[in-house]
Predict the structure.
Amino acid sequence: MPTVSMTVNGKSVSGNVEGRTLLVEFLRRNLRLTGTHVGCDTSQCGACVVHLDGKAVKACTTLALQCEGGDVVTIEGLAANGELHPMQQAFRDNHALQCGFCTPGMVMAAVDLVNRNGKLDEATIRAELEGNLCRCTGYHNIVKAIAAGAKAMS
Amino acid sequence: MYDFTYHKAGSLEQAGKLFKNARDGAFLAGGQTLIATMKLRLASPSDVVDIGGIGDLQGISVAGGAVSIGAGVTHAEVAASKDVRGAIAALADLAGEIGDPHVRHRGTLGGSIANNDPAADYPAACLGLGATIETSAGSHGADDFFVDLFETALDEGEIITRVKFPVPKRAGYAKFPNPASRFALVGVFVAETTGDGARVAVTGAGPGVFRVREMEAALDKDFSPAALSGISVSADNLNSDLHADADYRAHLIGVMAQRAVAAAG
């Protein structure tokens, strides 16, 4: 069985995987980082979004072996020293979640969005959420939270 | 997904060898289509050759009246490229409308056109601009490259290396996306080229990307949305599914073509 090595949330990790092992499976099963969710498993819903080499990707549509030597950040890697990341705090403050299933992917997508764009208007936020589905909130509070999180991050 | 043997290729030469030695090989670029296809067991290669790390497939340059984009360049890189936007803004716009931001971070130009999905965006840009597709074995003109549904002129083991898009006088792309998949229900790329007159390429509507000669002739006389107003496209052989029947798609071709011409300015 092949071995894969990468950096996850700042730590060097490695493990034995099959060719077909997905990044999300490696994170959840091998590393027990279960904050990254599998929603649709068909690259639609975005619950599995993590950062790979600084860019938001769908971990259900990336092979673990493709990430050899890569730098991965998951939702568990955002908070530092017991303090929520500003984007996580903004989601909490704005009631941007109900069941919470989509939230890890939403937050990771939102951080990536701010990293790429800096200043954000509402239309940009809504357009950029195309790859993240939420079935509870109707998106309004998520959009508000991302605008607030972007401000807090700047 | 059935298991397979994964290989990482460091060079085109190595990728070719790995593929040749495989019983039933498949090349993996960004994987945004292949991995989904394997999950559905619509593909079950014995060996997957990852060409995502090959440096020769990277890079964007503008020279000699053409934009040259490496096959491994992602949609996000094309969408964000000032060089591409400066030369062919419609191409940068098209790349920025593929899938969603996360898919665009992984999906590649070469992967898209090698797959030749009948609703993919890039084939419309290649055909609409009269691009040249360079490969490990030579090159193909876009008019001969897109053969049929998921079928291209590529030989077994042939790898797309770069695509050269001639810079047109003006070009535009208009897409009516399927709201669930974001693939084109109908997408039309129009260009006023420097050497080949007007070109109109339609994706999403038929079994593969195709040109509409009657519209091209009308645009050759007058490159304006109004020039297309009397032209109707036959619904024969167009796709019909629960999202849109053939008549609706035929109508959309006219609407999207006019919007594309308007976007070309």
Notes: Strands of chain A lie at 3-8, 11-16, 49-52, 55-58, 71-73. The two ends of chain A are 44 Å apart (CA to CA).
